[in-house]
Amino acid sequence: MVKNMKGTGRNPLLMAKELTEMVNNAWEDGSFYENVTPVTQDLLRFWFSDVFCDIRNINFHEGQKQAILNIIYLHEILQVNNVKDLYLKTNPEILQNMDINDLEKPKYQHPMYGVKMATGTGKTWVLNTILIWQYLNAREYDEGNFSKNFLLVAPGLIVYNRLLDAFLGKEDENGERHFESSDFMDNQELFIPENYKDSIFGFLQSSVVKKEEISSKVTGDGLIAITNWHLLSGIEEDESFDSPLDAPEKVLQNVLPISPGRTAGNSLEALDNQFLRGNVVEYLSKLNDLVVFNDEAHHIHEIKKGGEIFEVEWQKSLNKIAESKGDSFIQIDFSATPYTATSGKNKVKHYFPHIITDFELKTAIQNGLVKMIAIDKRREVSSIKLDFKAEREGRKVVGLSEGQKIMLRAGLAKLNILDEEFKNLEQYKRPKMLIVCEDTKVTPLVMDFFKNEGLNEEELLEIHSNKKGNVSEKEWDSIKQRLFNIDKYENPRIIISVLMLREGFDVNNICVIVPLRSTESSILLEQTIGRGLRLMWREPEFEDVKKENRQKILVEKTEPSNYLDLLSIIEHPKFMDFYDKYIEGGIIAEDSDGPSSNRILGDMITVSLKDNYDSYDLYWPKIIRDSEEILSKNELSLNNLKPFNVSLEDLQIIKGEGGEEFESQELTVKTKFGRYNINSDLFSAESYNEFLSKIISTITSMLQPVGRSQKEFPLMQVNNAELAGLIDEYIRTKLFNQEFNPMVDENWRILFMSEDSIISHIVIQVSNVIYRMQNNVDVKDAVVKKKYFSDVSELRMRENYSIEVAKSIYERLPYPSNKGGFEKAFIESCDIDSRVDSFLKINEYYHNFATITYIREDGLLARYYPDFLVKIGNDVYVVETKSDKDINSPNVQSKRIATLDELDKINQLKGMDRMDAKWNYVLLGENTFYRMNDNGASIKEILDYTIVSEAKARGYATLDNF
Predict the structure, then answer these.
(1) What is the pTM of this model?
(2) Are strands 308-310 and 329-335 parallel, antiparallel or unpaired?
(3) What is the pLDDT of residue 954?
(4) CA angle 527-530-535, nearest 5°?
(5) Which whole-number Å values give the CA distances from 666 to 674, 676, 678, in the listed order?
(6) Is the pLDDT of residue 727 over 80?
(7) Sign of torsion over alpha carbons 744, 750, 752, 755
């Protein structure tokens, strides 16, 4: 049983790199897409196609996309059977440097995919998409090794409850969960194509079971079982202990026969738990197929005791569950630290052999997906020889050492500086500090220390965990309400624990970490840092200043200009070797001088309304229909639908004979010969209805955010049944200017034979009909909603790229940091022109109601935001200052023609609904502005000269013509 293990080293990362290159090549050349199921094609198109990505506010980042693509490629295209197969089908030579016998263990004899992603980069989103992909394929196809049964295994109560939040919805104050607040509902625009929503939502709401319900609750079409690993191990989460001296009763419990009684080890509850574990494993073992997701999977590595190698109980249970399933058991492991490390001076990391993607912390930091990290090195810490362990008398902890007190004061000072500055920018964003203690007996001493420093009970949160950082059910019940939405409240400011809930603690506002606990474990150190990596300042207006900061720290190696999304770690001497490796790798920066108040926020400021803002207030008139009105069939007419530009006769010739075509090919020299056809009934009435449904889904997928709450509603409110009738009638009678029956002589093939042209033609034609219908509002009967810009009471902007103004509702107006000189000059000219009554720079993130809808070249709806609104006397000017190079492209022309249409409708309104002014559309070129401005022209003269007519929008080649 004893053997010398060669280990894996970094070889799994090499395999993952080569696999990623293989996948990306297949994605680029189109072979990936061609070799997956139609359902998978639908999902990939929805998740990653520019057609959908461009109209969403959220999308997958490169690390998430790579993980999703790699798993699908391995499963559907390479069809790997086990872990060794991963290497055989990517680069078998890597196995020369590994212990190949180790890969023959039972736990590696099924499809197994390890996802290595840095903490805070959204592993749960990858999990969600893989579950959707598996379920929808399993629902449609008997073959392909897909499953409707899922087991989600969490390392502890925190991650377990996070998964319940994702699938069942977040708990309210009464402990009830509401599906409307689940991740799937919140992010449905990203996860689920329209035509699959009913299936996915039905599955989620009927098939999720909590850990105590596994094997007993009746589910719908499949199973989503969520548990923590303790259930599979047959123990309670708070039962772990380090040595017999820590818990002698546990030794007796393991030696003496178990019988019901009143002690902890022999209670009926403990017996029930062990019985339940047996039932759960037995139940899951009997399923024909299963996909297991292990969240924070570094917990299931092997352990070595007394020279012998053991599997943890969690893995033993998984082995039993997988035993009868073969490759119908699929295991997907997620971890930021999927490795074991050797002991001794020269530590070696051995990565799990089934890692198939590697999204590193360094890449995540460089891309701005997580916080940057800075080590606070204080002179008093580095120069005075102090003890950084708690003071003890024997084994008894009696007090904090001077070194620990210095670290805590340094952390508190940093927290106070950040808190004072952050609330000036955003009162609801308050930084938090995490204290990681060396021992459970140290946490109350830290609490007492902060109280002596003047903090009160509400500012502190003490987490009572065991020595391994796990929290019991009882403790979780007592703290979860304080942890719930902790980012949104001023208190608690400081969180104190032994290991701070090592995984799943999704707090965005951790800005300072004080690691009082010293450790030799690199995994523990990485997990400690991981608690503070999640972004705090996620709003788009901060991206520019954060990007500049990354340039300063990561590229120029200079001091940060601000502390937005910068995690500060108070230096612990024992961690310096670990820190040095990260500093050398460009992941961690040093901050030896400490922050001054003018460096915390950089030049980010909050600008409010002026006291006399109402003198300069403007509004955007929104012409809306009655909320109950939908498009009727009488309005949806074939009259404006144009036929396809290729005749049906020519398309019939291209289609060729009916049936499925086969061709023989000789095996060795690949000679092709002997084409033949067979009859097939691939397309049915049901297939045609699904085809219509997908077209409707594509047409109606555009969403419009309303207000800063980012709630979204479809731009096009249509009766889907009547819209399907219109499309069907169009296809059968007008698409080819003659009668066409897709169900006869396999005519349906014509619709798919040139999908980019025929289907796109249908989408564009129908979208135009709906767009014209929704914009053909009789303004005499229209309901007008005035959206005042002053409803947005404050803006955040960069002080260095903004200017004080007199004739606007805000004290300052921003301009772009990159090539923003033109807009700055325009703002200055408007402000000093005596004829200008009021003007405003439209910010699409805040003033998202000031938008115009237009139809893109591909038939989908898009949104356009003008740059400025200027009021001069009885004229309002909607101004665009962007220097578009492709002014003659169809999309740019459509955008401008749509703007003219919108302003024409506004000008038909009653004067009281349009500020008693005529609305004009202006396309202002940079050269034109500077030339006329230098020659003394007024702003009104410049704007009048550049007013856009429809003829100009369609026919002029450069902006200088305006």
Answers:
(1) 0.72
(2) unpaired
(3) 63
(4) 170
(5) 11, 15, 20
(6) yes
(7) negative
Torsion angles phi and psi, residue 719, rounded to 5: -85, 110
User: For 116, phi and psi rounded to 5 degrees?
Assistant: -100, 110
Q: Considering only residues 257 and 6, tell me which one the structure prediction assigns the higher pLDDT.
A: 6
C-alpha angle with apex 744: 739 to 750, nearest 5 degrees? 75
- Region 303-312 average pLDDT: 49
The per-residue DSSP string of 193-214 comes to -GGGHHHHHHHHHHHEE-GGGT
Whether residue 453 contacts residue 527, with contact meaning beta carbons closer than 8 Å, is answered with no
Torsion angle defined by CA atoms of residues 941, 944, 947 and 951, in that order, rounded to the nearest 10 degrees: -110
Asked if 430 and 493 touch (Cβ cutoff 8 Å), the reply is yes
User: Burial letters for 483-494: b for 16+ Cβ neighbours within 10 Å, e otherwise?
Assistant: beebbeeebbbb
Alpha helices in 887-925 (DSSP H): 890-907
Q: How many helices (H) and strands (E) does the chain have?
A: 34, 36
- Cα separation, 807 vs 803, whole angstroms: 12
Spatial separation of the C-alpha atoms in residues 673 and 642, rounded to whole Å: 42
Q: Within 13 A of 260's CA, how many CA atoms are on the CB side?
A: 4
Instruction: Determine the Cα–Cα distance for residues 154 and 627; give it in Å rounded to an integer.
Output: 45
**pLDDT at position 175:** 76
DSSP 8-class letter at 499: S
Comparing 582 with 706, the larger pLDDT belongs to: 582
Would you state the structure tokens that stand for residue 590, as one six-digit string? 């040093």
Nearest to 35 by CA among 78, 89, 98: 78
d(Cα 404, Cα 392) in Å, to the nearest integer?
13
68 membership: H or E segment, kind and range = helix 62-72
Query: Beta strands 494-497 and 396-399: pairing type?
Result: unpaired
Name the residue among 223, 321, 314 with its Cα closest to residue 281: 321
- 303 bridge partner residues: 310
- The C-alpha atoms of residue 855 and residue 715 are separated, in whole angstroms, by 12
Under the phi-then-psi rule, with left for phi > 0, alpha for psi from -120 to 50, and beta for the rest, what region is 91?
A: beta
Alpha-carbon distance 219 to 123, whole Å?
26
Which string of b and e fits 559-571 if b means at least 16 CB within 10 Å?
ebbbbbbbbbbbb
Please name the residue that has the structure tokens 């049915």. Answer: 684
Q: How far apart are CA 95 and CA 104, in angstroms?
A: 13
User: Cα(782)–Cα(901) distance, rounded to whole angstroms?
Assistant: 15
Q: Which residues make beta-bridge pairs with 47?
A: none
Lowest-confidence segment of 82-96, 590-604, 806-820, 831-845 by average pLDDT: 590-604
pLDDT band at 811 (very low <50, low <70, confident <90, very high): very high
- Helices marked H in 101-145: 123-140
For the cut 50, the answer to whether the pLDDT of residue 76 exceeds it is yes
Of how many residues is the chain composed? 962
Residue 213, burial from CB neighbour count under 10 angstroms (0-12, 13-18, 19+): middle
| Tens of pLDDT, residues 740-767 | 888 777 777 777 765 457 877 888 888 7
What is the rounded average pLDDT for all residues in the chain?
78
**Whole-angstrom distance between the N-terminal and C-terminal Cα of the chain?**
83
Region 204-212 average pLDDT: 90
**CB 814, CB 841: distance < 8 Å:** yes
Q: Say if CB 8 and CB 350 are below 8 A apart.
A: yes
Q: Which of 588, 580, 584, 487 is nearest to 538 (CA)?
A: 487
Q: Take residue 749 and report the two structure tokens written for it.
A: 């093939």
- pLDDT tens, position by position, 19-54: 999 999 999 998 998 899 999 999 999 999 887 887
- CA Rg, the chain, in Å? 32
What three-state secondary structure class fits 77?
helix
pLDDT, tens digit (0-9, with 9 covering 90-100), for 120-159: 898 999 999 999 999 999 999 887 789 999 999 987 777 8
Q: How far is CA 584 from the centre of its chain?
A: 29
